[in-house]
Amino acid sequence: MNVRRSAAVLTAVAVIGAAAPAAADASPSPSPSRAALPSALYGDGDPQYDGVWRQSLALLAQHTVGVEPPEPAVDWLAGQQCADGSFAPYRADTAKACDDKTMVDTNQTAAAVQALAALGGHDAVTEKAVDWLKSVQNEDGGWGYTAGGDSDTNSTSVVIGALTAAGERPADVKKDGRSPYDALLKLALPCDADGAGAFAFQPDEKGELVANADATAAGVLGSLGKGLVVGPGEEAKTKAGCEKAATPEQAAANGAAHLASVLAEDGHLTSALAGAEDQPDYGNTADAVVALAAQGSTEPATASLAWLEKNAADWAAQSGPAAYAQLILAAHATGADPRDFGGTDLVEQLTATGPAAQADQDGKGEEDEAEKKQQEEKDSGFGIWWFVGVCLVAGVGVGFLISGRAKKRQP
C-alpha cells in the first residue's frame, strides 16, 4: 500500500482520467512554494495527488512509535473530508463544498480512516468515511481507486485495512453477497500459473492475471484483514508454499511465498519502467517487508529490512514524509528500531518534515533575533529588527502504494 513510492502524478492522471467526471481537471499543477502550502501539512511537495495519503502515513507512523503528532496536523487531515465522508488527495479550500469535480478516491479515504482511528477521538469522521466506502463497494465485493472503477488488489486491500481499523469485520461487508475477500481471491494467481501465488493488480486487457509485486504485498495484508501497521512477532498460520487458495489465509500465504522468492535474489524488489534501466524499488520493498512480517515470514522480512537499512537513506531523504513513514512501519513490523535505522533516526527525520519542526525553527529564529537585538542595543545604543525567513527542508512527494502506481510494478 500502498500505501504504497516515486511521485504518483503520472499514474494518478491515468487513473483519474479514466474514471473521474469529464469536467474534472486532472492536469498536474506546478509545485507550490512552502509558504503557499498549509503549515500543518507534512512535506513540501505538491500535495495535489498525495496530500491526504502522505499525511495519513506520517501521522500513523508517528503514533505507532509513540510520538504524539501535532494537533494542527491531525486537524488538517480530518478537515479534508468531504460532506459525504470521502477524501480527495488535497482540498486547498475546505470552506468550498466538494462537488463532482472534486477527485475523491478510496485510497486517500481508507488511509485517513486508518490514521484517525489509530489516533482516536475522530469517530464521527471515520464512521462517515466508512459509510462512504461501503456505498461505493463493487458487486464483486472489492473497490477500485475511484468510485465505480474496476476492483483492484491495492484499493480493496487498503479499504479492508480501514474497515478493520474502524472496528468492522471485512468479511461481513458485502455487496450482492460478496465480500472484499471474494474480490481478492479472484485476483490471486493459481499455483500452476507463471508467478504462482502472487496477486495481480487487475486482470489485463485480455482478462488474464499477471503477477505484480506491489499488488502482492497489498494483497497479503488485505487477505489477512490487516492495515498499514503490523506488529512484530506474529507467526504464520498456514504452511509456506503455494497451495490452492480456497481461503484468504491461504492466498496470503501463497502471496508471501511469492514475495520471499522474488526477494531472495538480492533482497529488494525492482521497478521496471519503460525506456529506463531497472532500479531498486525501495517503497515496494518496504511494503513487502510489512506483508511478510504480517504473514509470519520473519527470515525474508528481516533480510530485506537489512537491505533497506543499508540502501534506503538517500531515497527517503529525496522522497519525503511518506517514505520515512514506510520505513518506520517496516522497521516496526520486524521489531527493529526506527530510531537507529542504519545509523539514521527515521522518527526524527519524519518529524523534521512536519509542522512541529517548522514551529521549532520559527521559535529558534525569534530567540536568536531577540538576543541579537539586545547585543546591538548594548553596543550602539539603538536596535535594528532583523526579519529572518525559515524554510522547512523536505523531500518531494513519494509515490504511493495505492492502486494507480501498481500498474507499473512488476516482480
**Gap between N and C termini, in Å?**
15 Å
What average pLDDT do the residues reach?
83
Determine the structural class based on helices, strands and strand pairing: mainly alpha
**Widest sheet, order of strands:** 1-2
What global shape is seen?
globular
Number of E-type strands: 2
Number of helices in the DSSP assignment: 16
* SSE arrangement, N to C: HHHHHHHHHEEHHHHHHH
Largest sheet entry: 2 strands, antiparallel
Task: Give the low-confidence spans.
Answer: 1-30, 361-411
Multimeric status of the protein: single chain
The fraction of residues assigned to DSSP E strands is: under 5%
Indicate the percent of residues in helices.
40-55%
Gyration radius, rounded: 22 Å
Descriptive account of the structure:
Helix content is 47%, strand content 1%. The radius of gyration is 22 Å and the shape is globular. It has helices at 9-19, 51-64, 71-79, 106-119, 123-135, 153-165, 180-186, 213-223, 248-263, 282-295, 298-311, 313-319, 321-334, 346-351, 355-380, 403-406; strands at 269-271, 279-281. The model is unreliable at 1-30 and 361-411 (pLDDT under 50). α2 runs parallel beside α13 (321-334) and α11 (298-311) runs antiparallel to α13. Strands 1-2 form a two-stranded antiparallel sheet. The protein is built from 16 helices and two strands. β1 and β2 (279-281) form a beta hairpin. The longest helix is centred in the C-terminal third of the chain and has 26 residues, at 355-380. It is mainly alpha-helical.
